[in-house]
Amino acid sequence: MAQALTSMTSSPLSLSDSDFNNNLTYQIYSLLENKFLFGNDSPKQLSECHPLENLISATTDVAGKVRILSIDSSASTDGILATKSLSLLQSFLRAKSNNPNAHIADYFDVVAGSGIGGVLAALLFTRGRNGSLIFSAEDCFNFLIQNRRKLLKSSGKGLFRRFSKPSKKAEKIFKRIFGEMTINDTVKSVLIPCYDLKTRSPFVFSRADAVETDGYDFKMSDVCIATLADPVRTGPVHMVSVDKRTEILAVGGEVAMSNPTAAAITHVLNNKQEFPFCNSVDDLLVVSLGNGESHFGGAHYYSNPMSPAAFIKIAGGGASDMVDQAVSMAFGQRGTDNYVRIQGYGIQEQKSRMEKDIIGMADMMLGEKSVESVLFRGKKLSGSTNYEKLQKFGEELIKEEERRKTSILPNVVLKQASQSPRTSSATTLSLSTASSY
C-alpha cells in the first residue's frame, strides 16, 4: 500500500487538492474493502493473481455481469413502492424485449428480500406445480393492494397503530399460495433473512443451502411468516426444516437486515460454485428497492417514553441507510452504472390509509429526483428521477440478457439438488446460526 501511495503522490496531478484527497481516500478504502469485506487476504491479490485467476479475470468481460435484485422491508408504503417499481420495470423489459410474457425473474440471477420484500421475492421467484412462475410483478402489485392489511395487520390503537405484524389471515394466504412448495422450488438464487432468537443471530433462508440438504430447506409459506414476524406484537415464530432437523425461533427480517443488499453482494462474491467469474463489484448489476422512509419520521409520532415499535423502526431505517452508504462506497465511481438505489425521501406517511393514497404516494416517490449516497458527503440529489433510473437500469438488463445469448461462458451456474445431503458452504450466515443443531 505504501508503494502505491508513494507513486500516486510523486506523479503530476491535474486535480485540485480536494479532489486528490477524495481520490486518495477512495483508493485506501478500496484496498480495505477488498481485504476485509470481500475476502481478499492481501492487497497484492489485486495485482498479483494465480494464473488461473488471471484467466478468469481476462474472461470477465466475456462472461458478463451477475444481476442482483434487493428489496427492503415495508417502511411507510407497506411494500407498494417496491411493487410499483417492479411493475414499471417489468413493463419496460417486456416492451424492449418484445416479449409480453417476460418476468422479473427472467432478468435477475439473485434476489434478496427482507420483511415484505422477502414475501415479494418469494412470490416473484417461486415456480408452481406446472413449472411456471406463480406471480408476475403486476400480480404482486394487485396482491399487495388487496391483502396488505391482512399481511401487515394494524394494532388499531395508539400512536403506533400501524406497526406491522403477520396475522392468522396471512398464514392462510401464504399456505393457499405456496402449498407445500419450499425454497428449493425457486428458479434463481434466493436470500430471505429473519432473526433467530435461539442463536441470537441472523438466519438467511437460501436456495443455495436448500438444494444441498433438507436441513436448510423450509416451506415457503413458513419463510414468509418468519420474515414478517413482529417481535413486539406477535412474538417469535417456531420453525422447522422439511427434515425436522433444523429448528429456529424467528422474528422478522426487519430486525435482522432491513436492507439485504450487502448480504446479496457478499453471497455472490463468495460463492464461486454458482458465480465462477464474479470477482468484484465491477462484475455486478445491482438494483436496491426501498419502500419509503420509516413512518416514524416526524416528532409527532413519538411519545415519552418511546415504544419498542418505534425503536425497531428507527434502527431498521438507520441500518438500511448504512447499507446503502456502504454499498455506494464499495461501488465508488462505478456506482451510477452498476448500482441503483430507488428510495422515497421527504414524503411522510399520510394520515389517510386508503389504497388510492398510498398508490399516489408511491407514484410521487418514483417521480422524485433520485437521491444518491456520496462517499464521505452524505446524500445528494441526482439529475434523474427514480423512474428514469429504473428505465436506464432496465436497458442494462436488456444488454446483459442479449449478451448472454451469444456467450459461450455461463456466468451463473445454479446448484442442482444433491443426491447425498451435505453441509452447505454457500451462506455463512445460515451456517453460523444452524451450528448448534
UniProtKB/TrEMBL annotation:
One of the GO BP terms on file: lipid catabolic process
Quote the EC number. Answer: 3.1.1.-
Question: Where is the PNPLA domain positioned along the sequence?
Answer: 69-265
Stretch list, region Disordered:
416-437
Under the heading Pfam families, the entry gives: Patatin
Hydrolase as a keyword of this entry, yes or no, is yes
What keywords appear on the UniProt entry?
A: Hydrolase, Lipid degradation, Lipid metabolism
GO molecular function terms here? Answer: hydrolase activity
Q: Which Gene3D superfamilies match?
A: Cytosolic phospholipase A2 catalytic domain
Q: Which PROSITE patterns match?
A: PNPLA (PS51635)
Q: Where is the composition biased (Low complexity)?
A: 423-437
Q: What class of enzyme is it?
A: hydrolase
Domain comment quoted from the record: The nitrogen atoms of the two glycine residues in the GGXR motif define the oxyanion hole, and stabilize the oxyanion that forms during the nucleophilic attack by the catalytic serine during substrate cleavage.
Protein family per UniProt: Belongs to the patatin family.
Q: What is the annotated role of this protein in its UniProt record?
A: Lipolytic acyl hydrolase (LAH).
* PANTHER family, A to Z: OS03G0784100 PROTEIN (PTHR32241:SF12), PATATIN-LIKE PROTEIN 6 (PTHR32241)
**Name used for this protein in its record:** Patatin
Species per Swiss-Prot/TrEMBL record: Dillenia turbinata
Provide the taxonomic classification: Eukaryota, Viridiplantae, Streptophyta, Embryophyta, Tracheophyta
